[in-house]
């Protein structure tokens, strides 16, 4: 099976996710700078989620750059990833509208954790099809960044009830960890 359809479909879904997130930002009724103040948490949550979606798009692109073929299992794995990514707009809206309150922050972390798990499952399905000698396997076999990210999400979910700001800092730290495009695959290609 050719990989181009899965890439095109994924690109389209990610574009829609970003569109939904930005449409959640409602313009204020008033026409003053003061009226924008209540939108600061909404905008900040949008920025963080936009970065996360961008990170997933970037890494998905890099991963599929080395994929030679796909099968039904990979198609379903990709859909599982897209399902969890499609919940980012909901979680983003909730944390923004409720000014980073504990429950929305923990749910945001849960969605991010599930996105990470889904991405890892997809990666493993590709490796299973392409084998242990594949470029992808060689690139990701020591996935320290992935393990750190999952641990940070696991800590951030309950810590949201201690301090939502600690959770927020952990989410930002993970985003900063991944914001520089993952070069492991490019290194294997070179």
TrEMBL record:
Protein's cellular compartments: Membrane
GO molecular function annotations of the record: potassium channel activity; proton channel activity
Sequence intervals crossing the membrane: 9-27, 39-58, 70-95, 101-122, 151-180
Topology in the lipid bilayer: Multi-pass membrane protein
A GO CC term attached to the entry: membrane
Membrane among keywords: yes
InterPro entries reported for this sequence: TMEM175-like (IPR010617)
Catalytic activity: K(+)(in) = K(+)(out)
Main location group: membrane
Keyword annotations: Ion channel, Ion transport, Membrane, Potassium, Potassium channel, Potassium transport, Transmembrane, Transmembrane helix, Transport
Family statement drawn from the similarity comment of this UniProt entry: Belongs to the TMEM175 family.
Protein name (database record): DUF1211 domain-containing protein
């Amino acid at each position: 099976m050719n990989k181009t359809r899965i890439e095109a479909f994924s690109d389209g879904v990610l574009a829609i996710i970003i569109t939904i997130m930005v449409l959640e930002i409602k313009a204020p009724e008033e026409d003053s700078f003061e009226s924008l103040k209540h939108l600061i948490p909404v905008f900040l949550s949008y920025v963080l989620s936009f970065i996360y979606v961008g990170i997933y798009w970037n890494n998905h692109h890099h991963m599929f750059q080395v994929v030679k073929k796909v099968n039904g299992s990979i198609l379903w794995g990709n859909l599982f990833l897209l399902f969890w990514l499609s919940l980012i707009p909901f979680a983003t809206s909730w944390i923004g509208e409720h000014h980073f309150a504990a429950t929305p922050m923990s749910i945001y972390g849960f969605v991010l954790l599930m996105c990470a798990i889904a991405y890892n499952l997809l990666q493993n399905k590709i490796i299973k099809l392409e084998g242990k000698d594949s470029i992808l396997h060689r690139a990701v076999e020591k996935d320290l960044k992935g393990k750190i990210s999952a641990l940070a999400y696991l800590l951030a979910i309950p810590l949201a009830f201690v301090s939502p700001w600690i959770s927020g800092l952990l989410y930002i730290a993970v985003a900063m960890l991944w914001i520089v495009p993952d070069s492991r695959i490019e290194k294997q290609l070179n």
